[in-house]
Specification:
Elements lengths: L4 E6 L5 H15 L3 E6 L6 H5 L2 H10 L7 H6 L2 E7 L7 H8 L2 H5 L7 E8 L6 H15 L2 E2 L7 H6 L5 E4 L10 H22 L2
Parallel strand pairs: 1-2, 1-3, 3-4, 4-5, 4-6
Helix pairs in contact: 1-9
The chain binds flavin mononucleotide (FMN).
The site of flavin mononucleotide has 20 residues, from α1 and β4.
Amino acid sequence: MTPANLAVIYYSATGTVHAMAQRLAAAGEKSGAEVRLRQVAELAPREAIASNAAWSQHFDRTKHEPKATADDIVWADAVLLGSPTRYGNIASQLKQFLDTLGPQWVQGLLADKVYAGFTASMTKHGGQESTLLALYNTMHHFGGIVAAPGYTDPVKFTDGNPYGVSHVTGGNNDLPLTEEDYAALDHLASRVVKIAGKLARV
Ligand SMILES: Cc1cc2nc3c(=O)[nH]c(=O)nc-3n(C[C@H](O)[C@H](O)[C@H](O)COP(=O)(O)O)c2cc1C
């Protein structure tokens, strides 16, 4: 059987969503998928990045990592999209990437794929769910199949986000991912790979 193609595409300013994306990519590979892990391009002015040490360090550490292109989504059977929460919405860097996909969208090349999202926010009720729902607006316009995790595994009753996977970074924006987060990320990746495999057999 041909392995499913999984694209993990994300924006991260200070590294949290990057760590989530790395875990998803590893879990996707464990589930038998061929994986592309891609960051979207940074668009913020240099001065803005320089004003935040954590942002600056993460930018320097990851600036040579492969950048997302339209082909990464066209190639994929399943796509996981991640962004920090920005006022309850996705970051403009990820939105800008999505907004470059018009040519592929009008040709129907983004449709009939499995999509789900992941996010992080500083505070517990800081807009994680609205960020994921905002992300899914675009997936609906693609004609994508949104495979939100729901409560399809006992881990979801622990991490408690049926819309996707999310992590709270805390007041200093530095709380590391927990075992609970890892379990929810592993479940999300294996679930979208499994559903993509089922769709391939239809
Ligand atoms: C402009 C801006 C808006 C933000 N809005 C929110 C918010 O509405 N709620 C919240 O809890 N955190 C908010 N945050 C905090 C980020 O969500 C948090 O730093 C991020 O998830 C860390 O992810 P990263 O390390 O991958 O960049 C905001 C941060 C910035 C810079």
